[in-house]
Amino acid sequence: MQWENFHLLLQESLAQKEGSLIVGDIKQSIYRWRNGDWKILAGLGNDPSFRIRECSLGTNWRSEANIIRFNNGLFTAACQVLNDRYEAEQGDPCTQLLDAYSDVCQQTARKDEKGYIKLTFLPDNKEEPYAETMLQQLAEETDALIRKGIQTKDIAILVRKNKTIPAIADYFDKHTPYRIVSDEAFRLDASLAICMIIGGLRFLAMPDDLIAQARLAVAYQNEILHQDISLNTILINKVSDYLPAGFMLQLEELKLMPLYELMEKLFILFSMERIEHQDAYLCAFYDAVTEYQQKHSSELTAFLTYWDEKLHEKTIPSGEIEGIRILSIHKSKGLEYHTVLIPFCDWKMENETNSHLIWCSVAGTGKETDIAPFNELDIVPVNYSSAMANSIYRSSYLEERLQLWVDNLNLLYVAFTRACKNLIIWGKQNQKGTVSELLQEALLQMKDPPMQHEETDSEEDKSSAPDLYEYGTLCLSEPSAEQASGNRLSEQAEGIPVRLESTETAIEFQQSNRSADFIRGEEEEEDSTQYIRQGRLLHQVFASIRQESDLPEAISRLRFDGILESAEQEKQITRLAQWAMNHPKVKDWYNGTWELFNECAILFTDENGHTQTRRPDRVMMKNGQVIIVDFKFGKKNEAYNRQVREYMNLLSAMGYTHVEGFLWYVFKNELEEIV
Predict the structure, then answer these.
(1) 658 pairs with which residues across the strands?
(2) Is the pLDDT confidence value at 484 over 80?
(3) Whole-angstrom Cα distance, residue 520 to residue 177?
(4) Which residues lie closer than 8 Å to 184 by C-beta, 6 or more apart?
(5) What are 188-199's pLDDT values in tens digits?
(6) 3-state class (DSSP) for residue 239
(7) What is the pTM of this model?
(8) Is 159:341 a contact under the CB 8 Å cutoff?
(9) How confident is the model over 619-641, as pLDDT tens digits?
(10) Residue 141 and residue 161: Cα distance in Å, rounded?
């Protein structure tokens, strides 16, 4: 649909004798899961409504000559491998694939033959599990590169799936001194200090959750006090003995503190300033908490629910933090890196998931498969599998398989072309149906460049030894040349480390947002009476409940938000509300059977063309009937009638035919129907 819109604009541009520039690369089309279609760009030359002049940019200005030469040879060979598979099965060459990669070979802008490529295919056996060996080799290779002179900021690790990132980051954190920098690895729940603050909140909100308490104690003992104490040890003994004494002594006082100040207090009580590299996390976390409190109360259980459902996934930007970059291949598109490492280069060429549905149709195709009863359905969802090759939907299967081949070949192309100087890849040995298998077959067919291949002669060793290919010489990082400039605006910005500290301050009374809003409404006249305040409270109650059984919860919410001044006032408002809801018609409105719209805005345009808003107190709908109710707590006024009549006219204009309106004078418990 998006392309159809552009198509019309392009036709209009041509009709006006104007040109248009379309820029794209079929080989970098990796977003089919977002409905991207590489065949649109591939088929532009066949569109009779366009006059196309194609121009290929044949020079690669990013990569060193050896990287370009390797990618030229590899992807030409990989394309041929896939074409051979297709031709052996279909009898004809796969022209779509060959055309898509017809311009894969690029020229280099460099005069020197520089650049380094290394491919390692690891075995998978019981003695050396593949995933564990992969992480170990990735860490060892990274360490070796840095020791040889490549800076950490020049290294990027590209992965197929985001879920791989935490495992790699965790392994590097435990086995290397190097920092991994990634938006995915910098989630708030990756911060030890924030997790301890959340643990402290759980301790206060859920005093019966012994597991959560023990985890907090383990974190405090191991990370703050550096005592090697296990979770079982703490559970066997008394949890409070392993927590800060100041925290345990102030439990009751802490429960009464506002949320933000409580978090800062926990930071101090648990001495979290001893944990390094937490400042960026804490700043982002405190900002998120402040934003949360603008719209919500400080109730601990509600905030913990918000943390569990949403806030824990928030990431902090990695920015210019010194470290090894790690990101997905999709996110790396359009970027470049000095040295690119690609572990786990072993994803499937075809069905990546077990729930891969494709929509098939044979109706109206005129083919031999256009037969009953299959052609009686316009479209059918079919789970993609090789079994489709022997079914009536064979043509749909072949088309989807070709799409998957192109998708995964394009992913490899995007990943391999991110490298400027060095490209290092790890795959899985003898893994059928994966990109690892495709790479191994392509390397065997590739004639240029001449890869140095290390392979053991012994059949016994072949199953346990890595299969290694190398080409070129490793390129080291070059010191950045700093140019002196008299223009201060052109100077390179330097990062300044910032350390976050909390200072304890005396807490004064802090009003909740809803309480402040409510009291602000009372500042009309100095002689505001208790009668008026009760009216506002009852209005708040009736507008917030759906049925009569919701009344206790609504009263409780007003008490928690600081709107009710005393227990006596709470009892008084409860009695008044219960008395008012005993009216037979009101009782029907609050029986829970109506579809409710409480204080929802109605937007309309007045006679001057300006947008206006009206907000009835309560609109209810059931079985085509619409009832509008406005709550009133003073004397009768003709203006109230005009107001409700306007609401009724607006809803009638919206297409509702059976609309009734009422004024409910609550203190008299009297209903006035508006006609």
Answers:
(1) 625
(2) no
(3) 56
(4) 162, 165, 166, 315, 326, 327, 328
(5) 888 899 999 999
(6) helix
(7) 0.63
(8) no
(9) 999 988 999 999 888 888 898 99
(10) 21
Q: What are 142's two structure tokens?
A: 């990274």
Residue ranges in 296-337 assigned as alpha helix (H): 300-309, 329-332
Pairing of strands 155-159, 419-428: unpaired
CA nearest neighbour of 194 among 259, 256, 283: 283
Phi and psi for 187 in degrees, rounded to 5? -75, 155
Q: In the numeric block, which tokens belong to residue 32?
A: 């089919």
By residue count, the chain amounts to 675
Collapsing DSSP to helix, strand or coil, 51 comes out as: coil
Domain ranges of the chain: 2-55, 79-182+322-473, 188-313, 513-674
Nearest residue to 27 (alpha-carbon basis) of 106, 105, 108, 104: 104
Structure tokens at 332: 């790396």
Amino acid identity for residue 29 in this structure: S
**Residue 332 · residue 149 · CB < 8 Å:** no
Q: 468-481 burial, b for 16+ CB within 10 Å, e for fewer?
A: ebbbbebbebeeee
- Joined together, the tokens standing for residue 536 give 């506002």
Q: Is 374 a residue whose pLDDT tops 90? A: no
Contacts of 176 (CB under 8 A, 6+ apart): 139, 142, 143
> Does the structure show a pLDDT above 60 at 460?
no
Write down the pLDDT at residue 482: 55
pLDDT value at position 98? 93
CA distances from 662 to 80, 658, 670, 671 (A): 78, 14, 10, 6
What is residue 303's predicted lDDT score, i.e. its pLDDT? 94
Given pLDDT bands bounded at 50, 70 and 90, which one contains residue 378? confident
At the topology level of CATH, where does 79-182+322-473 sit?
Answer: Rossmann fold (3.40.50)
In the chain, count H helices and then E strands. Answer: 24, 19
Q: What percent of the chain has pLDDT over 90?
A: 45
631 token code pair: 């709550």
3-state helix, strand, coil in the chain (%, to 5): 45, 15, 40
Distance (Å, rounded) from C-alpha 210 to C-alpha 117? 53
CATH number (3.60.21.10, 3.90.320.10, 3.40.50.150, 3.30.565.40) of 513-674 reads 3.90.320.10
Neighbouring C-beta atoms of residue 312, cutoff 10 Å: 15
Phi first, then psi, for residue 674 (nearest 5°) are: -100, 130
Query: Average pLDDT of 512-537?
Result: 56
Cα gap 211→546, rounded to integer Å: 38
User: For residue 51, which amino acid is it?
Assistant: R
